[in-house]
Write a structure and sequence with these properties.
Blueprint lengths: L1 H28 L13 H22 L1 H5 L3 E3 L4 H5 L9 H19 L3 H21 L16 H4 L6 H18 L22 H18 L5 H13 L14 E3 L21 H4 L1 E3 L1 H9 L4 H5 L7 E3 L8 E4 L2 E4 L1 H7 L1 E3 L5 H6 L3 E3 L51 E4 L1 H13 L7 H15 L6 H5 L10 H11 L4 H11 L23 H6 L1 H9 L30
Helix pairs in contact: 2-5, 2-6, 5-6, 6-8, 6-9, 8-9, 9-10, 9-16, 16-17, 16-19, 17-19
Length: 568
Amino acid sequence: MKNKNVIYMMFLVLFAVVLGSCSDQLTDMNVNPNGVDPSTVNPNLMMATVITNTAAPYLNESFDGDVAGVMQYVQKSGWSSGLNKFDWTGERSWGGRYSVLRDLQHLYDRAGEEGMEFQQGVAIVLRAFNYGYIADSWGDAPYTKALNAPEGGQEDMFPEFDPQETIYRGIIDELKKANTLLSKSKGEYKGIDPDADLIYHGDPAQWRKFANSLMLRYYLRVSSKLSDFAKQGIEDIISDPGTYPIFTSNEDDATMGYVGTSQDDSWPNAIAFDASHSNFDRVQLCEGFRDVLWERQDPRLGVWFNKVRIPIKVSTDYTPVADTIVDGVRYLQPDSMAARGWVVYNKDTWVADLEAGKVLVDTMDYVGMPVGANVGDGSEWNLNPNIVQGGFNVHCSALADMYQEAKGDLLKARLMSYAEVCFILAEAAQKGWSVGSQQSWYEKGITASFDTWGVGDDLSAYMSMPGVAYDGSLYQIMEQKWIANWTVAHEAWCDWRRTGLPHFTFGPTVKRDAMPIRFRYGNAEKDRNNSNYLKAVDNLEETPFTATDGKDSSWSRFWLLQGTGIPY
């Protein structure tokens, strides 16, 4: 009997061992060898993703998105209503931004678990940048409880919209925290991987400068509403560079280059991944930008755009022929033009000419398309002989050839630049704040932009041009900052809303008689978080241009603009 019990016990042990072995094997088989467990992921593996997903969308909006059109950098010859005519009546989702913010929160948490303070500092800077974009674009938004869904409470799953002021103050507080986290020497940090950092290659000192330079941006952003707060904050930074280092040269610029191996990691509209060239061809120079650059004899114009392929000249050389191309130039006979109602474009009269039913003809070497000038999609502008939606226009300036490429030394997503810092401080000096010489900062800003685009040799002549030579005005600062913010249109839009500068002219076919000043909330917020959405909308202020939109309009004022009388 005893032997039977021993044999039985041996059988149970053997069965348990076999079962355990099978269980281990099944567990091993169900682990994805190529996957990464979020709870144990190395923070460095997340860095490139959060940087790319922050920088690339920002560049896309600022290079040829709707904001780039409204700020009169570019127009499009097809699928263009948002850029060319202020057609901003639809909703805009912020889902992509909050997706990045969730990843940044996870990066911050994992870096904290691993004692990796550098990665935590980077996460805070990028988190501030993304929340800043949201507050700048929509106004009130989920912030203090935005990423608390794992907590599971009602207020976490359906977070309230924090006031815009709260978000800006929170961003500045976060950047102060990042300044502290990033204040050590590189050797004191754990686990820095230079290859994971697509902006500064693992340099804490550079990220610290970025954090403090962003602080300058957001202090100035709220300066019309919180003047004393902004003045004190900016003066504190400038008076103590040891504690608050900022950008001091173009080498400090926060930029991300492109790999160029696929459409996803290339400069937008690269022709290597668009056989039709349509996405590239339909992006063309805006006349408002052209007029200022041409009048100032700005050499950056030729860096950013090509001359027209076939220029137009008004001449009697081939009379009685009314319209002919000779040696690559299109000649128009003046009497014939008058009979057809065609007039040469004039920057001071073009709107009135259009309203009088005239057809505009631009005869310059660089030609842009005015905002709100076309009844159609823009493809017909300037007597285009080959009207194709999204097609090339031989009488309008295309983007420079370098923008066809997938990557390049000048093809970078720019989050912030030294030039911007200089213009911020020039404006602060113009306000009378203790930050140094207004003229010095203004001229440093222009110099930084010229050096960025490789035209520094032309700087001296440019600085003496009427309208450029220092005169102490705010207008001058804002115009030059707008020019320098080429491919950073979103920031230029924020500046224009805050100051009303520079002044822009647009034609009669725009959807509203004013430029839009915010994004409308997305449908997801209306559907899933309606009560908090309605509270946020109630904080908006209608303007004469909201029409039938209601308060949630792209022409409604959020807190930042309420009571300022600017831009309208």
